[in-house]
Amino acid sequence: MLRLVFILCLLFTAPTVQGQEAPVVEAGRRAQVESARAAPEFDVTRNELDVLRTLAGVGVQLTPAETLELARQALWRGLSIEAEVALASLDANSDPLLAEPANARMWTMARTEAAKDRQGVLERDVAFISAGRSFRADAAVPVAESFLSMGEHLRAIEILRTALASEHLSGNLRASARLSLCRALLAAGRATEARWELENFPAAPPVYDVLVQAWLTVAVDAEQAAATSDPSSPPPP
After folding, report:
1. Which domain holds residue 216?
2. Computed from CA positions of residues 76, 78, 84, 89, in that sequence, does the dihedral angle turn out positive or negative?
3. What span, in angstroms and rounded, lies between the C-alpha atoms of 176 and 170?
């Protein structure tokens, strides 16, 4: 049903000369994604980052406060590159919120830690999660998401697929990792694979029902756009 709402908004809300319709569409998308917060067992610590990622993914402009929260959530998970990318958008717009002492410290920390990740810490982490007899799936997810934030989509996909093949991911982390796999597939231009993953999304905590439907709409739109430009589309995995 949520997917249908998204598609109807896209199909039947045509822009006017005054541009009055675009905010209406964005408001509808925001309302649908934010309804995930009302899902049973929603937890800010475990789920809010995916809600904010999804808002941005469906084309909703995050407020400065939401961007700061996304950065905080990312840093808490060790995703310094994702935090840096988010805060860089505020810095580019000279947003006054970023000048507040606590936020300025977060911005400095994000840049410092992101630089370390790019200069070798991520590669060290890759070696760590792959060492020994068993693949450290829980540690692999933030590593893969960091590669995704760097634009290394194929590497992110490879690590996430390996992590998801493990039996050692909890319900929320497994669902979040699969959602990140779909984000990586979309970023890599592999919309058909992303759609397949979303349509076959395993049972997950209820909050992900809303988020999966939102990303499915993105995948369907991307797949249709690719088919328009290139009639040959790859088969599902």
Report:
1. 2-14+21-61+115-224
2. negative
3. 10
Residue 216 scores a pLDDT above 60 = yes
Asked if residue 73 belongs to a domain, the reply is no
* Stretch 146-162: mean pLDDT: 97
In a domain, 70, yes or no: no
Q: Please check whether residue 237 lies inside any domain of the structure.
A: no
In a domain, 235, yes or no: no
The number of distinct structural domains making up the chain is 1
CATH number of the domain at 131, please. 1.25.40
Task: Dump the DSSP string for 182-228.
Answer: HHHHHHTT-HHHHHHHHHTPPP--THHHHHHHHHHHHHHHHHHHHHH
Res 19 pLDDT > 60: no
Residues 6+ apart with CB under 8 A from 7: 217, 220
What is the predicted pLDDT for the residue at 237? 52
Cβ count within 10 A of residue 128 = 13
Q: Which of 197, 152, 204, 160 is nearest to 180 (CA)?
A: 160
What pLDDT, in 10s, does the model give residues 51-69? 999 999 999 999 999 999 9
Residue 117: DSSP 8-state: I
What 3-state DSSP class applies to 89? helix
Query: Please, what is the Cα angle at 227 between 221 and 232, to 5 degrees?
Result: 145
* Distance in angstroms (rounded) separating the CA atoms of residues 185 and 37: 25
